[in-house]
What we know:
InterPro entries: HDAC_classIV, HDACs, His_deacetylse_dom, His_deacetylse_dom_sf, Ureohydrolase_dom_sf. The protein is of the alpha/beta class. It has eleven helices and eight strands.
Amino acid sequence: MCFRLNSTASTDQSSMSSGTDEDDKEDEAAGGKLTAELPISRDRIPIVYRPEYGVRFLGLQKLHPFDAAKGGNIYRLLKTNGLIQTDGDVYAPNEITLEELLAVHTPRYIDSLKWSLNVAKIAEIPPLLFVPNCFVQRSYLRPMRYQTGGSLLAARAALESGLGWAINLGGGFHHCSADRGGGFCPYADITLAVKMLQSSGRGIERILIVDLDAHQGNGYERDLMEDRRVFILDMYNYRIYPRDQHAKLAIRRAVELKPHTDDEEYLRKLKHCLSQSIAEFEPNFIIYNAGTDILKGDPLGLLDITPEGVVERDEFVFRSALERSIPLVMLLSGGYLRSSARVIANSIVNLRDKALLPTVQ
């Protein structure tokens, strides 16, 4: 069942340096001011991706179950399926800048990322603490900054293109808050997207976060604890990480699942609780955190959802937004099976085939 939970409630650019003179010059150019906004066009497919999303650090990424190449694999599958014809059809985000990160993150937290030990804890890869931070910046944190920039660009595309949707083939770092990272989430892209939308001047006053990753989204929940302009629907396995009781106070509608929940129970609860949340809150923007760690066999999510269940889940969320003309941005979040990329690509193709991605032929 779902139930209501009521809330009671100085750094420098070197912190983002990748360690070489050439990279430092790039960072210095990027970090002193906001990135120039990329133009949004109705003629582009509002899918956001660039090859720099891929995480690579001397093979150490293989020590974590996360598929570091998931975005690239999905992109190639979407090309194979004909949804994307050329690279110019989609949006390639800029790396988010230091100034943009400081709109949410504390200087102390950003500064802490200069230490490989701290990043190793966030990435959950202990040997990373022995890697010089210049390589950690270049091979892990920089791809994460591109994905974070992609989340903001996708939110803008959903809002400004007139198409009403966008998908970032990355992002969804829902365990990261303003002053704390964790769970492979070093930057708070969801909080950043919320703040950007609220300050856009486009009348976004009620943002619904639909978090369907298998884990509780404790990062942005801590950040948005007192913000009544945000309604959080979080559906998660309550017996796994992070079990953050304080963050739960921010959840307006919680759907706590037992391990090995199957399609029938999962979809029934989702359809009931999402419909309730939309009717009650009447959002004018939806952030959809579409984790695929709910798949059966995922080593961290411990749920039993089939690929067909994921496809039906995504279809219901998109249809719920489209039928009410609510702009929606989808972020990929967790998913720790190598098969996740194909499941996500198949789901996006299904959305196209069901006419739930306007203008995509």
